[in-house]
Amino acid sequence: MNAATTTASAPSAVELDAARVLLERLGIKPEDLLAVPKPKPPMPTFAKYIPAVSGAVREGTRRVYSTYWNRICAEWGDRHLDEPTALEVEKFAENIRTSVRVRSNARGGRGAVEHFIAALRCLYRYAEKEQLISAADNPARKVDKPRRLPSTRCAIASNRLAEVNHVAATTGDDPELDSLILRLHTETACRRGGALALRLRDLDPQQCLIMLREKGDTVRWQPVSSTLMHGLVAHAKSRGAGPDDQVLRYRNGNPITSRRYDHLWRRIAKHLPWAAAQQVTTHWLRYTTLTWVERNFGYGVARAFAGHNDQVGDTGSTTTYIRANLQEIARALAALTGEPHPSE
């Protein structure tokens, strides 16, 4: 065979022009053909990837999702992230639903399923950022969270609230602490996390303001009565708190945890059957105060009193123009407590 017949001939000008047109239509530059593709990182298993993501998220996120990440590790630990399908995720979610512990306030395991899917989406969100998986191949995106049912919480009637405060002040091993906790939440409508994060340096006795640091990294100054401010300062100092230490503390000087709240409401439920039946918790105090503020001072003041901002699921842009200031919040607080406030 002639060697000339086995050697590819050089492309003609017409062929080169055709190739250029094809590459242009495909959005490919000639230099792209010479680039060496980067090797794709190996796909990790759930057992290896979950600890990495757990170390990257915030403490609050880790606390909520860790239960479900542990469950995923137990079931899928040896599997790679790109193996499970949307159908398998749905089956896993159904197993979560049927195995959830039945409580008196249970709602069919909907909350557990919601947290499971959110925990899985968190893992895959990081996997997408690291280009381990594409959005189209992400199975967690293809499974819907269960629709949230309306909350059963509501404002507590004034006579019922008096009963709650009476039980806290007359029972238990530390009535002073429990009464202070209830007054703090009733006056400020703060969340449990905000109360636990409160430090001595966050108290401004001169202006009767406390700095609340709550979920979503929100930080705000909240007015309190002079009675509550005096109680917080005296409580913290008498129990050995320094400027950077938590305000709410046990008699032995140790800072309280969320377990104190659990014990408090279990005791209240034991003495008040209606509180046990309705599963009343600290968050009901937030509902109670904000409902009162809204009824008496309007939506804008209640929204500011709650510490909500423009990114918290609002219904329209009008809320930008009805934002209440600190003086208006203090005026509502003064009416609530019957004590004048320096910011009025």
Automatic annotation (TrEMBL):
DNA-binding as UniProt keyword: yes
Keywords, alphabetical: DNA recombination, DNA-binding
A GO MF term: DNA binding
Positions of the Tyr recombinase domain: 168-310
InterPro entries, sorted: DNA_brk_join_enz, Integrase-like_cat_sf, Integrase_catalytic, Integrase_recombinase_N, Tyrosine_recombinase_XerCD
Natural source organism: Crossiella cryophila
Coiled-coil regions listed in the entry: none
Family the entry assigns: Belongs to the 'phage' integrase family.
Keyword DNA-binding recorded: yes
Origin superkingdom: Bacteria
Gene Ontology biological process: DNA integration; DNA recombination
Identification of the protein by name: Integrase
PANTHER family: INTEGRASE_RECOMBINASE PROTEIN MJ0367-RELATED (PTHR30349:SF41), PHAGE INTEGRASE-RELATED (PTHR30349)
